[in-house]
Amino acid sequence: MFAGGQLSEILLPMSSSADDDNSNHPMTSIASGFNMGGPHELANNNDETVLHSVSWNQDYGCFAAGTSSGFRIYNCDPFKETFRRDLKNGGFKIVEMLFRCNVLALVGSKLNSQYSPNKVIIWDDHQSRVIGEFSFRSEVRSVKLRRDSVVVVLEHKIYVYNFMDLKLLHQIETLANPRGLCCLSQHANTSVLACPGLRRGQVRVEHFGLNVMKLINAHDSKIACLTLTMDGLLLATASVRGTLVRIFNTMDGTRLQEVRRGTDKADIYSIALSPNVQWLAVSSDKGTVHIFSLRVRVVGEDRSTDSMTAKSPALFTQNSSNSLDSLISQSTGANPGSSFSFMKGVLPKYFSSEWSFAQFHLPGYTQFIAAFNSQNSVIIVGVDGSFYRCSFDPINGGAMVQQEYIRFLKTETRSR
């Protein structure tokens, strides 16, 4: 775990593999790579550092910043820079954390003289070395990690690898996906992936553990942003129009709710679902983070609906002969905040679109990503090097209150 700049070691026994049968497959290898050395501070050169990207870890307790000189890791609560790594040969446009462990996935920027944007590096910071590398013929758009898998997103294809040996498990064809849209469940006993399908506005959901694939026609326009709950059973999506966000049951594709960000077209930067599946946050180029109240029924809200769940388990499993018991552990299912316990049929399939419950205004000229922090609070990170923490009134809503503002990197920003 990250603590005072130190990292706990996790062992990943990886072996090299290359697919000789199909030249279209990427090459995978183990490499000794460069040595970025220990943590150190840059001397009076913050203004020269370019911030390429910011991204949350899987539980939103940390975020990573890819810079023109390397990468930096920040803890959110309390806010502090945990450590940084700096290179002489260029920086990284993508930095993907694996919770708080010592392994990260890195993709070089266009100015990185050693690692191009066509490569994914698996970096073990405990050993200070590259322990795996993927090479592709086209630019990597994004990388997503689970404890058991590495997912690499190219513009037209997604590759899923086993984390332990880097062997290719799945290939998925997508519509043109320049944003690298893809999201994963993070519960150990669910393995769900959501990504654009092959048709405009379509989302493909893979329940790998159940060997079930579901196509959801989410929007008429192209998908601009999507996210899953930690268990992968709720999906939230927005299109390039940016006016509506829709929430779906990933098992059968049922639309559970629709919320309205606004009436004008907007570029949606991020969608976040609160851990208790009670709130949804949306950030956009309009310079506003909107909070919406979710109306998904969960176990514990109504005893009569709990009994209905017990009598009608088939409501969840239209696409599989397996019950959800094979997908979710009993301990997870008993959690009143688990999205697994939403009930198809309790609520109408379609809600008329609802307006936001609370709002927070930001400078509209930069990109921000939002996530839920502690109860009734939201954290926001911008590619202008700013960090906000704000709270909202869960009863009355309205304008959110800024609790914290930190300028963690005074820098110019550059798109990926």
In short:
The protein is mostly beta strands. It has helices at 303-311, 330-333; strands at 17-18, 27-29, 50-56, 62-67, 70-76, 79-86, 92-97, 103-108, 119-124, 129-135, 142-145, 149-153, 157-162, 168-173, 183-184, 192-196, 202-207, 212-217, 223-228, 234-239, 244-249, 255-260, 268-273, 279-284, 288-293, 354-355, 358-361, 368-372, 377-382, 386-391, 398-399, 401-407, 412-413.
What does this molecule look like?
It is a peripheral membrane protein. Belongs to the WD repeat PROPPIN family. It is found in: Preautophagosomal structure membrane. The protein is mainly beta and 416 residues long. Helices cover 3% and strands 42% of the residues. A six-stranded antiparallel sheet has the order 1-2-10-9-8-7, with no helix packed on it. A five-stranded mixed sheet has the order 6-5-4-3-33, with no helix packed on it. Strand 4 and strand 5 form a beta hairpin. The N terminus is likely disordered.
Which labels suit this protein?
single chain; 416 residues; mainly beta; six-stranded antiparallel β-sheet; five-stranded mixed β-sheet; 2 helices; globular; Autophagy-related protein 18d; WD40_repeat_dom_sf
